[in-house]
Amino acid sequence: MSADTQTLDTDAVGAWLEENLPGFAGPLEVTKFQAGQSNPTFLLKTPGHNYVLRRKPPGVLLKSAHAVDREFRVQKALAGSEVPVAKMHLLCEDESVIGSMFYVMDHVPGRNFNDPTLPELEPEERGAVVDEMNRVLAALHDVDIDAVGLADYGPPGNYFERQVGRWSKQYRASETEPQPDMDRLMQRLADNVPAEDGQRTLVHGDYRIDNMIFDATGTQCRAVLDWELSTIGHPFADLAAVIMQWQMPVGAEGRGLAGVDRGAHGLPTDAEFIAAYCARRGLSRIDNFGYYLAFCFFRMAAIIQGVLKRALDGNASNPEYGLKLGQYVPIFARHGLEALDRDA
């Protein structure tokens, strides 16, 4: 049994796949992906086919976190839809195999972009990649959740009220030091929840360009990854998450577009991206966008706080990065308050 997040019991995985996955044939070679903080992810290479395994980290975990079974379910449901996803193979709920629940899916070859400035591309190609990102997002929110069997994938009621409550509890459970701006942000979000507008869709929960695989030579999206935070909720949370990411500093840590001359780079402005999304979904406009943006900053701060706590507890997938990332909690909280103030 594998007891940490950095390694995988290759023999145990290989034996389980031999027994349960039709067509599987070793020898099996395992490599851990360093990207991603929440659910440790491994590339499984065999002579005939490559797979990816995502597992829950071992140890004591926050309730409802690291829901690899939900990731498996939503991606399986989206097979054949306008939302590209990897092919799901198996979910293993028997923790005795490797020490935690895991699932196995196809490895999707292609390009992954960590930097939204897309420095490796020409301006025209950059615009096409971001427009494809926009198309997939609109398609995701137009999925008929009844038809694909996901109507019960999230509870009823006001999504933002539910999410602010949930992430406030998650934040408190992993709090390591006082953050006055985070306290203020949580209170203001709870006090100003938007009224229901009838939109109830599938939401990804962490929609950004580095969670997508694009064609190796073109601009088509081959797969959207990392569905751990997905649920049934309000689509504007996903849209605002994209804009939130872009407002962060440029570079490996912020991975944003702050200060970038987007026109010269072939990239859309926030307003252009939002307008293209609205056009695709037949919406005239979006009111109160500052709230949705502030909510995204708040949720990301809560997630980062959880990563920091796991790093301090020795449970993180990449402890050194987790400690570094934790410094952003007050920054995200401040950005959230600023977004509310701009829209007030």
Automatic annotation (TrEMBL):
* Lineage start: Bacteria, Pseudomonadati, Pseudomonadota, Alphaproteobacteria, Rhodobacterales
UniProt KW keywords: Kinase, Transferase
Species this chain originates from: Sulfitobacter delicatus
Residue span, Aminoglycoside phosphotransferase domain = 30-255
| Official protein name in the record | Predicted kinase, aminoglycoside phosphotransferase (APT) family
Domain of life (superkingdom): Bacteria
Q: Name one Pfam family in it.
A: APH
Enumerate the PANTHER family for this protein: AMINOGLYCOSIDE PHOSPHOTRANSFERASE DOMAIN-CONTAINING PROTEIN, HYDROLASE, PUTATIVE (AFU_ORTHOLOGUE AFUA_1G12880)-RELATED
Residues of the signal peptide:
none
Supply the InterPro entries for this chain. Answer: ACAD10-like, ACAD10_11_N, Aminoglycoside_PTrfase, Kinase-like_dom_sf
Q: Can you provide one Gene Ontology molecular function annotated for this UniProt record?
A: kinase activity
